[in-house]
Amino acid sequence: MTEQQTETAAIQAIRKAAQTPAETTGKGGKALGEADGVAARSLGLRGAVNARDLGGYRTADGRVLRHGVALRSDGLNRLTDEDLGLLGALGLRQVVDLRSLDEVREAGPDRVPGLPVAAIAAAELSASPITVERATPDGMTLHHLPVFAADFDIYVALRDALADRSPEKQRALLGDGKAAAMMTGLYRWFVTDPVARERFATVLRLLAAPDGPPLLFHCSAGKDRTGWTAAILLTALGVDRDTVFADYLLTNERSAAIVENVVDSFGTRGLMREPELLLPVFRAERDYLEAAFEEVTAGWVTFEKFWQDGLGLDDDVLAGLRANLLEDR
Fold first, then answer.
1. Cα–Cα distance between 33 and 253 in angstroms, integer?
2. Which terminal CB of the chain, N or C, has fewer other CB atoms within 10 Å?
3. Among 262, 259, 222, CA closest to 54
4. What DSSP designation does 245 have?
5. How far apart are CA 37 and CA 95, in angstroms?
6. How far is CA 124 from the centre of its chain?
7. How many CA within 13 A on the CB side of residue 33?
8. How confident is the model over 130-177, as pLDDT tens digits?
């Protein structure tokens, strides 16, 4: 095993060890994600602490996003056996994994109830989109839709920073705003890259199909690709921009314990002299999502034009999303 692989394994071990029941509840036993009036609620998965329901958000026309139909999450590769039971009880029809081939290699394939492990691994260990069809009529279908950018590969940067323990090189790679700039560039790439746009659009088409939801979409941390997918979806449905940002930033509350433990571990294990350099990579920042929306405006002026010309989606897809996901209340 190379040093780089060793450090990657250490990262995964630290993340797994950091996932304790305390992360799924806040003070007084209140589920994280229910604070400050934010409607999204935790799915209660020990191995995916950022898994939550988008249900409860209100649209401009007074309708409400139904609970249990559109779910967002971090990776499902660390699910416990108990988590699999909880996930199976949600009645999901589809799971979408937005992780890259390298991420799956390093962290492992998803655990999806009812699907063979070998079939999942074969699909997710691919750089191209692959679908694993449900094994039974009431089972789940898995779609691997990898979204990754060579110029803004977070995991490559993290590996490079940890493989070379030189504090000077780590600071040169991540310090003085470089980590934040990499993240901002990534979010702009979400909008400008045609392949990335098509992958995000595919998730929306799946949600809009008559037999689409309930559907769960995820990446590794449930923060960047998942966050942008949720932002597009909520905006298209007519959820106000402040709520869209509140849902995005909720990741920081959900993942706070993991981030704190990982950063502390990198310091105490001697991997980094300044582990706080990684915080811009680990955290959701308003500037990142704003950069994506700014790119939408720069390229298409309005979100409606971006929907039509950037994502290649039409009124039928929007009508399908509204029919599938919204309810009068």
1. 7
2. N
3. 222
4. H
5. 28
6. 16
7. 26
8. 999 998 999 999 999 999 887 666 666 677 777 778 888 888 888 999
Distance CA 64, CA 326 (A): 5
Q: How far is CA 235 from CA 72, 159, 288, 298, in A?
A: 15, 34, 16, 17
CA 135 to chain centre: 25
Instruction: Say if strands 215-218 and 94-97 run parallel, antiparallel, or are unpaired.
Output: parallel
Q: Is 90 exceeded by the pLDDT of residue 45?
A: yes
d(C-alpha 237, C-alpha 218), whole Å: 20
Which residue type does 194 have? P
Q: Which residue has the tokens 């797994």?
A: 16
Pairwise CA distance, residues 259 & 254, whole Å:
10
Hey, what's the torsion of the CAs at 46, 48, 50, 56, to 10 degrees?
A: -80
Q: Look at the chain and count its residues.
A: 329
Q: If DSSP codes are grouped into helix, strand and coil, which group holds residue 53?
A: strand
Query: pTM score, two decimals?
Result: 0.88
Q: Indicate if the pLDDT at residue 16 is higher than 60.
A: no
Residue 72: name the closest of 90, 47, 95 by CA. Answer: 95
